[in-house]
Amino acid sequence: MTAGQAAADSGRSDVRLVYCLADEHRGELRDAALRIGVVRRPQGPAGGADAVEVPGPKGGVRSLDEWAEKHRGDFERVCDAVMAAAGDPPGATADKGGGGLGGYLDGVLLLATGAVLTLVGQMTERRSAERRTYGRQLTAAVREFRRIAWLYLTAYEQDPETDHSEALRAREALSGLLALVPGPAPRRAAARHLADSLPLADPLPRSRDGRLLQPHERKNEADAVRTTVDRQTRDVADLRRPAPVWWLRGSRHGGRPPSAGGQHG
């Protein structure tokens, strides 16, 4: 810390020398020194246009460079005033340049803060993009399952031997996406329950109790499945409610997984 402070002080002194002894600021420095009263205007042409006279037994006529070197305290006081009047706080340039430990730590803190904010922003955007992509996939899977289920059920009413493989494929695709539903825990539990209870895991029956089902009986079977599909596709949409809703439902059900759409008649 002591070394850092020394480096900071040295940096500020360098700034004063560079700034106040620059050609464009020497006149300001001389005028300020005269107004503050630490020097006098020399009599006659001695010392040149920017010469000053230092009062006292160890004084005399000095150039501004000599005065800055031999009377460092007065020079720094006057130079600080010149820089402040110009809107440049003493040592500001040195601090901004990292001349001291404080400036270095400030720079590190700013860099670290910027990096963290960038990382958080990237993570948030990535998660948002992933949620949007998943939402589109889930919506598409629900529509496909509903479409394939309707086709299968309509065909089943006419022919109990209708191929069931496409309906099974659509069901498995939707079930797999439901397994990826994010938390909270009550929502994940409802999604798993919904995935397990999706209809058409097996073909609809061709016969019952040793006899072939009649067309009207097959229609009743198909209508019951349609009702279930309608209800459960609505339940999938319900899974996308905000997380606080699901925390509330979970507490209401005492830890038991609630259905996505609540109680159904």
Annotation keywords:
two-stranded antiparallel ribbon; 10 helices; two-stranded antiparallel sheet; 4% strand
Can you walk me through this structure?
The protein is mainly alpha-helical. The protein is 66% helix and 4% strand. The protein is built from ten helices and four strands; from the N terminus they run H-H-E-E-H-H-H-H-H-H-E-E-H-H. The strands form two sheets. A two-stranded antiparallel ribbon has the order 1-2. A two-stranded antiparallel ribbon has the order 3-4. Helix 1 (2-20) packs across helix 4 (72-85) and helix 3 (64-70) crosses helix 4 (72-85). The longest helix has 58 residues, at 101-158. The chain is rod-shaped and about 130 Å long. The two termini are 74 Å apart.
Q: How would you sum up the global shape?
A: rod-shaped
Report the average pLDDT across residues.
80
Oligomer: single chain
Count of separate DSSP helical elements: 10
| Biggest β-sheet description | 2 strands, antiparallel
Helix fraction, binned, reads 55-70%
Radius of gyration: 42 Å
Relative strand content? under 5%
Would you spell out the secondary-structure blueprint of this structure?
Blueprint: H1 2-20, H2 26-36, E1 52-54, E2 60-62, H3 64-70, H4 72-85, H5 92-96, H6 101-158, H7 165-178, H8 185-197, E3 207-208, E4 211-212, H9 215-238, H10 243-252
Antiparallel strand pairs: 1-2, 3-4
Helix pairs in contact: 1-4, 2-4, 3-4, 6-7, 6-9, 7-8
